[in-house]
Amino acid sequence: MSINLADDPFELLVRSVVDYAIYMLNPDGRVTSWNAGAQRIKGYTAEEITGEHFSRFYTPEDRAKGVPEQALAAARETGRYEAEGWRMRKDGTRLFIVYCQTKSRRTGMGERVWCGVNRLGPGEV
Predict the structure, then answer these.
(1) CA distances from residue 49 to 29, 44, 120 in whole angstroms, order as listed
(2) What are phi and psi of 30, to 5 degrees?
(3) Residues 6+ apart with CB under 8 A from 5
(4) 80 and 103 in contact (C-beta within 8 Å)?
(5) Backbone angles phi, psi at 80, to 5 degrees
(6) How many domains does the chain have?
(7) What's the domain range around 62?
(8) Is 5 inside a domain boundary?
């Protein structure tokens, strides 16, 4: 039986949330899904960001220090990674976010994926 995600009430709920960026990453850290909140907060459309590595959300300083790779490693080891800090929007501006990455599985596919949830930090709009 094939499920049309467009008809799945949970999928519809996640896609309609605009106050939180909710997206999925494959095991290598590439974006596989993207909601309206992620577009509003980070500035990328789903078409632009799908397939891209999540490290592009990090500041150049954090990328140079290997922070995105450390986040994936920590999530692999414990099943969860939480942080807050500066990240980058598509337009190059910085935003302060609270971030959580959690291990998940795609139903029926067995592929491990990561669910990222971001919310804006205090004072961000």
Answers:
(1) 12, 6, 19
(2) -95, 140
(3) 11
(4) yes
(5) -160, 145
(6) 1
(7) 22-120
(8) no
Q: Give the DSSP letter string of the chain.
A: ----GGG-HHHHHHHH--SSEEEEE-TTSBEEEE-HHHHHHH---HHHHTTSBGGGGB-HHHHHTTHHHHHHHHHHHHSEEEEEEEEE-TTS-EEEEEEEEEEEE-TTT--EEEEEEEEE-TT--
Question: Residue 10 to residues 46, 115, 118: CA-CA distances in angstroms?
Answer: 18, 14, 18
Residue type, 84: E
Q: Examine residue 6 and state whether it is found in any structural domain, yes or no.
A: no
Q: How far is CA 114 from CA 3, 60, 66, 93, 119, in A?
A: 21, 23, 18, 25, 16
Token pair 């990453």 is found at 25
Q: Which residues contact 38 (CB under 8 A, 6 or more apart)?
A: 21, 22, 23, 44, 49, 118
The pLDDT tens digits of the residues spanning 22-49 come to 888 888 899 998 999 999 999 999 999 9
Kindly report the pTM of this predicted structure.
0.80
Q: What is the pLDDT of residues 63-84, one digit of tens each?
A: 999 999 999 888 888 888 889 8
